[in-house]
Structure formats: structure tokens, C-alpha cells
């Protein structure tokens, strides 16, 4: 495979249909993202069946637009990359089938990519000089993982959530506070006007000497707090609750990630996933990295949430390391990145 190959990438694992064209892995020529948020908002969460139907309806047009915006022709494409898992299986199947058809009709190789590897790889697009090894914190709607990336395509799981993912906790707490779905961005915004010390939250694992997380109890803590305030006839200090919740989660994520980097002798920390767009998490992790003499990397906000450019970047390194998929590739709702 040539170093400056043109890759068409497709992502459809949740509620974004996205297609991108990259040259040489880190140069994004186009990244088209069609979000279904407005459709799922009235259900206060993603409805898998509706999501897969929407992917089917728009994937061809999204890919066509990615080709047009990149200023290339279909025949210029050298390889295809697609998210094969984990995610909602109906959505994944749409992307995988589209990628197979495209690769077959163009006569070019294609490669299935793990969604988390995609999120981590978004960092290579924003930070052109970044190279493994590093410690990564991957926090999204479906994952909260601390991952040691020893080399391209080589990952070791250091810790993960035992229940809810960080993004899931943001979304659930936002729902309790009456904010729209997905709630992470609204908590982030409101927390800026609140006092992060106003309320104390806790989690069973927060102060334990391991690298795992537990976020499901915090939602209960917020529900109990809201009930207590309502029973006392007090108005909800939404900004203070948002800020206190966010402060606790960000502190927990930051402390464990920095401790993991120290233990595994890493001097670079890489943040990834939808929750990586959170302004407080970026600020806190960057400050703690500085104190610990470590470099901090995060993707630009548009590359934090689901997009195909990050899948194209991960696919590039897979292809350069000799990985390809064949037409037997299946979509996998729960797919492991680790051995
Ligand atoms: O990576 P992503 O787009 O999808 C998954 O792979 O899950 O992540 C979506 C998650 C949602 O839970 C959303 O609320 C959260 O990322 N999120 C945020 C922010 N922006 C998106 N959470 C906290 N602060 C934000 N600014
Ligand atoms: Zn994601």
C-alpha cells in the first residue's frame, strides 16, 4: 500500500452516518457527518431500529458528498475503511455492507476498524507529530477505557467502567435535570455558570487503587438530591448540580489516567471519544499532565464525537501494517480490541 493512498472511510455505529476521504492517513480531504440527533431527541435516546433505517437512507448520498467535497473521483480511491464494531448492529451492518460493495466495485482492498481504535486515531489527525507509545483515556457514550497504546494497532486494556460509560452518565444526569438528549454538551455549558463544590458525589471505585470506574451510582445520587430539593420546595440549582457532577467525574477520570501513565511509565496522555469534547475534562487533564511532566493530546472537538475521518486514520495504519478484511467480515455489536 502506498503511503499517500486515498482512503474512503465509513462510520455508522450509532446515530451519525459519516463518510470521509483521507490522503495518507492524517490529511482529511473531506469529513461529512449526517447526525440523527434531531430524530432521536424526542425518544430521549437512540432507537436502534430507527437509526439503522436512517443510515440506509442516507449513506450513499453522504459518501457521494464526501467524494465531491474532497475534489476526487470514485476511481481515485485506493482503499476503503469501515467501523466493523462495537456498536448498534443494525447500523454497523449498513456501513459494512456499503464498504464491501464499494471495495468490490472499485477493485480495491478494504479493512474493518474497531470504533475505539478510531476514536484514539482522531488524535493523529489533530496532532500530526503524535506517535505511540502513550496512555489513552477513551470516554464516549458507550465506553470508558484506559488503554495503553504500545504501537500502531497494538493496544492493552488497563481499566474500564464496570457499569455505565462516562457519556452515558452525562446523558442520564442531563435527563434527570430536564436537559435535551444527548446531554453531555448541555451539562458542559451549564457547569460553566455553576459551583463545582456545591454538592458532593461519590462512586464505589473512585478512591480504590485500581484503574476501573463506576458511574451508575452517581445518577442515583443526582436523582436523590433532586427529590430532596423538590420535597423541600426548593428550586433546582441546575448549574451547581451540573458543575458538581462534572467536577467529580472529570476528577475521577483524570486521577486514574495519570496514575496509569505513571505506573506504565508513559509520558504522553491522549484523550479520545465524545466526552473528550468536555471543556472541563480537557482543562483538568492538561493541567495534571503539566504537573506530572507529561504531554497532553486531544482531538479538535469535531473529531471527538463520531466521525468517519477517525476511522479512515485507524484504517490507514491497519492497512500499512498488512491488515485487510475480506467479504466474510461481519458487523460485531461487541467486538474486542484487546487480544
Ligand atoms: O463518541 P460518541 O459520539 O459516541 C459513542 O461512541 O458513544 O460519544 C457521544 C457521547 C454522548 O454521551 C455525549 O453526551 C457525550 O459524548 N458528549 C459530551 C460532550 N459532547 C459530547 N459529554 C460531556 N461534555 C461534552 N462537551
Ligand atoms: Zn464513538
Structure explained in plain terms:
This protein is about 40% helix and about 20% strand. The chain has helices at about 35-40, 50-70, 90-105, 115-125, 165-175, 185-190, 215-230, 240-265, 280-290, 310-320; strands at about 5-10, 15-25, 25-35, 80-85, 110-115, 135-140, 145-150, 155-160, 270, 295. Strand 2 (about 15-25) and strand 3 form a beta hairpin. Helix 4 (about 115-125) crosses helix 10 (about 310-320). It is globular. The chain is an alpha/beta fold. The protein has a five-stranded mixed sheet, with helices on both faces. A five-stranded mixed sheet has the order 8-7-6-9-10, sandwiched between helices.
List the helices and strands and how they pair.
Blueprint: E1 6-11, E2 16-23, E3 27-35, H1 37-40, H2 48-70, E4 79-85, H3 89-106, E5 110-114, H4 115-126, E6 134-139, E7 144-151, E8 154-160, H5 166-176, H6 184-191, H7 216-231, H8 238-263, E9 268-272, H9 279-291, E10 295-297, H10 308-320
Parallel strand pairs: 1-4, 4-5, 6-9, 9-10
Antiparallel strand pairs: 1-2, 2-3, 6-7, 7-8
Helix pairs in contact: 2-3, 4-10, 5-7, 5-8, 6-8, 8-9
Bound molecules: 5'-O-[(R)-(carboxyoxy)(hydroxy)phosphoryl]adenosine and zinc ion.
5'-O-[(R)-(carboxyoxy)(hydroxy)phosphoryl]adenosine is lined by residues 14, 140-142, 167, 170-171, 182-185, 188, 273-275, 277-278, 305-306.
